[in-house]
Specification:
globular, 22 helices, 3 domains, 6-stranded parallel sheet, Rossmann fold, alpha/beta
Length: 551
């Protein structure tokens, strides 16, 4: 073994684990790592403009690849700026490793410049948070971090790196690449599940979440279509299976199809695969209550700690999502086909249709319809939080895994950074970031990152001069008393042009399709600024301020 700096050992072991991209904002606390990356051709270093963008990009990359997205930030302000992405990765159940350059070991516990106890800070929002004090143990820590991030319920790991440790020259034995351990479903549990399905009269599956992947999607779709089982998805998991599937029933969460909600209430058997049944998916734990009287619950999840944690579970199955789905699709069963799968799909098709509005200058629903007609089915739609996202959640038809990047944590500012990560990971596919005006300005600076790194992506900014979601709640609780929700915005098309993007403003429905065609003809980053009135359009369901006020 030859002596290497801690920074070099860290980079070598990231390469050994299969890391091919790092997102960062540089900091003096990890200069030794940046120096090691100077001569590393195996890793693409993506330099961002704010640490929130860094962590969002890493979380999105982990969601797309199934292996940890890797972020590097500096101590104190850098780490706290990027903490939102750690929270998103945890609630989204996606693998991520968040490296933080830290104060030198000799200055620990003195409240040195930008010092924070990072294991204590991040422990509640990460699967594992630790500090590496010995450069010789870096291979051990990196291998463990990789394993923790991808195993069971995937999630984020946080590792603090004292800057003097990264400069130490030591001998270290590198670790080989780790893989996710196999989790096969118990055969007796599978047999019991098939018997429960045979006895059911109105079953429903809810899928998407921890460990979901293309293989799980393929096999579960085959199984569900074989028996006519209607399949809905958890909040913002709409790409769990291709929406064209004959048994696709739509999405739960905010603003779901009332007919789907009724199906959930009337189901006698719920087969939940990958989802946690969180607050958004269950409408505050009321659509499906923790005790769900009158319903049987089969919960399939890769983390044994999740099974039975919140919900009374009649049949818990701890398994890998792909392994479970493949086993189900190949199981020799005599289940009589259900009619409800086709019926549920027909209801979703009707619900997803755009009802054109002629009483507004720019109808976002018709814009989504125009996008569906013009863009490929495998387009990757990226969005943060806000009522604007509801138009795509309701009317877009997602093509399957890695077609939706949207934070289940409801975090604003995610869409543009996620689109940057998607454009870099899938340069051959159409990538679209959709954002509200408030949402966009939380991480719009990452347009500079997109342009610098040659991304080809479309950004759509829906500008209503308001924090629309909060305005909606405000009008519901305090009608007519608008306070703190109005926004004075820049000219987003001009702002996009300043970053080097092709951009155009759209204010009328009839102009959108032509603007979209013009954007498609351009390369690089394109931005469409859609201007609407908050008084006239609050939600995809047609909710307006006047309706909320009862006027």
């Amino acid at each position: 073994m030859n002596q290497r700096t801690g920074g070099q050992i860290l980079v070598d072991n990231l390469v050994a684990q299969g890391c091919d991209r790092i997102f960062c904002v540089p900091g003096e606390s990890y200069l030794a790592v940046l120096d090691a990356l100077h001569d590393c051709d195996a890793i693409d270093l993506v330099v961002c403009r704010q640490e929130g963008g860094v962590s969002y990009m890493a979380a999105a990359d982990g969601a797309m690849t199934g292996r940890p997205g890797v972020a590097f930030v500096t101590r104190g302000p850098g780490a706290t700026n990027g903490s939102i992405g750690v929270h998103v990765a945890m609630q989204d159940s996606v693998p991520m490793i968040y490296f933080i350059g830290d104060v030198g070991r000799g200055d620990k516990d003195r409240e040195a410049f930008q010092e924070i106890d990072f294991p204590a800070m991040f422990g509640p929002v990460a699967k594992w948070a630790a500090k590496i004090d010995d450069a010789a143990r870096i291979p051990e820590y990196v291998a463990r971090a990789w394993s923790v991030a991808i195993s069971g319920r995937p999630g984020p790991v946080v590792l603090a790196l004292p800057e003097d440790m990264l400069r130490d020259a030591v001998e270290a034995l590198d670790r080989p690449k780790v893989t996710r351990p196999a989790q096969h479903p118990d055969p007796d549990a599978m047999a019991t599940l098939m018997e429960m399905l045979k006895d059911a009269s109105a079953p429903l599956a809810i899928v998407g979440g921890a460990d979901w992947c293309a293989g799980a999607s393929h096999y579960f779709r085959a199984f569900a279509e074989d028996i006519g089982l209607p399949v809905a998805c958890g909040f913002r998991r709409q790409d769990a299976i291709p929406n064209e599937s004959s048994i696709w029933a739509g999405n739960l969460g905010y603003g779901p199809n009332p007919k789907l909600v009724e199906r959930v209430r009337e189901a006698d058997l719920l087969l939940v695969v990958g989802a946690r049944l969180g607050e958004a998916t269950t409408d505050g734990y009321t659509l499906i209550t923790p005790d769900h009287p009158g319903q049987l619950l089969v919960h399939v999840h890769p983390d044994p700690n999740e099974l039975g944690r919140v919900y009374r579970t009649d049949l818990p199955i701890c398994a890998d999502m792909r392994e479970f789905s493949e086993e189900a699709s190949l199981w020799d069963h005599d289940i009589i086909d259900f009619d409800c799968g086709k019926d549920a799909h027909d209801e979703w098709l009707e619900w997803s249709k755009v009802q054109a509005r002629d009483d507004v200058a720019l109808d976002i629903g018709q814009c989504v319809a125009a996008m569906r007609a013009a863009l490929p089915a495998d387009s990757i739609i990226c969005n943060g939080a806000g009522n604007f996202s509801g138009w795509w959640h309701r009317h877009w038809h997602y093509g399957g895994p890695v077609c939706q990047l949207a934070p289940t944590a409801g975090a604003m500012g995610y869409g543009v950074p996620a689109a940057v990560a998607a454009a870099l990971r899938h340069p051959d596919r159409q990538v679209v970031a959709v954002a509200g005006d408030g949402d966009f300005l939380m991480n719009g600076q990452e347009l500079a990152t997109a342009v610098q790194h040659g991304c080809d992506m479309l950004v759509i900014v829906v500008d209503n001069g308001s924090y629309g979601t909060i305005r909606m709640h405000q009008e519901r609780e305090y009608p007519g008393r608008v306070s703190g929700t109005g926004l004075s915005n820049p000219d987003f098309a001009a702002l996009g042009a300043a970053y080097g993007c092709w951009s155009q403003t759209v204010e009328k429905t009839g102009d959108f399709a032509a603007a979209l065609d013009a954007a498609k003809a351009e390369s690089g980053v394109k931005l469409l600024h859609l201007k609407i009135d908050a008084e006239e359009q609050l939600t995809a369901g047609g909710l307006t301020v006047a309706k909320l006020r009862g006027t």
